[in-house]
Specification:
With about 180 residues, this protein is low in regular secondary structure. It has one helix and two strands.
């Protein structure tokens, strides 16, 4: 059944985009929000500062999306393609980003505390100034990533490939390697 679903601004609560989605009436909110986001991305909508908390976006194609400042806390982004996307200043704390393609992504000053980034592709990603405390980056590909000034305290970096990564000024206290 077709339903309208709103995507709102995380600060004001005002509607940024209304999507016509086809989901069951009893579909969980996370699935509805994920479907609406996919429609918005396809329409090339500006999704900066959107509220996507708990959204189920697993497997979605979000290449080059502008999600700067977005609230993606607890979002399911497992196996999502975010290559080339702008997630600067986004809140991705406790998000599931396992196996996600985050190559060439702008994650400057993003909040990734407790994020699950196991086996994520973060090649050439800009994570400068990002908060990665307690993040699980085990097996992640961080080749040539910019981690300058990033907070990696107590992050799990076991098996991560950091070849050519810029770690100048990064805080690695308590990080597991």
């Amino acid at each position: 059944m077709k339903n309208a679903h709103n995507i709102t601004d995380r600060f004001t609560g005002s509607v940024i985009f209304t999507a016509e989605i086809q989901v069951a009436d009893d579909a969980p909110e996370a699935l509805r929000l994920g479907a609406a986001t996919a429609v918005a991305i396809a329409a090339k909508a500006d999704l900066s500062d959107v509220d996507l908390r708990h959204a189920d976006l697993s497997g979605a194609d979000l290449r080059h999306a502008d999600l700067s400042g977005a609230d993606l806390r607890h979002a399911d982004l497992n196996c999502v393609d975010l290559s080339g996307a702008d997630l600067s200043g986004a809140n991705l704390s406790d998000a599931d980003l396992r196996h996600a393609d985050l190559s060439d992504v702008d994650l400057r000053h993003a909040d990734l505390r407790h994020a699950d980034l196991r086996r994520a592709d973060l090649r050439r990603a800009d994570l400068s100034g990002a908060d990665l405390r307690h993040a699980d980056l085990s097996g992640a590909d961080l080749r040539r990533a910019d981690l300058s000034g990033a907070d990696l305290r107590h992050a799990d970096l076991s098996g991560a490939d950091l070849s050519g990564a810029d770690l100048r000024g990064a805080d690695l206290r308590g990080a597991k390697s």
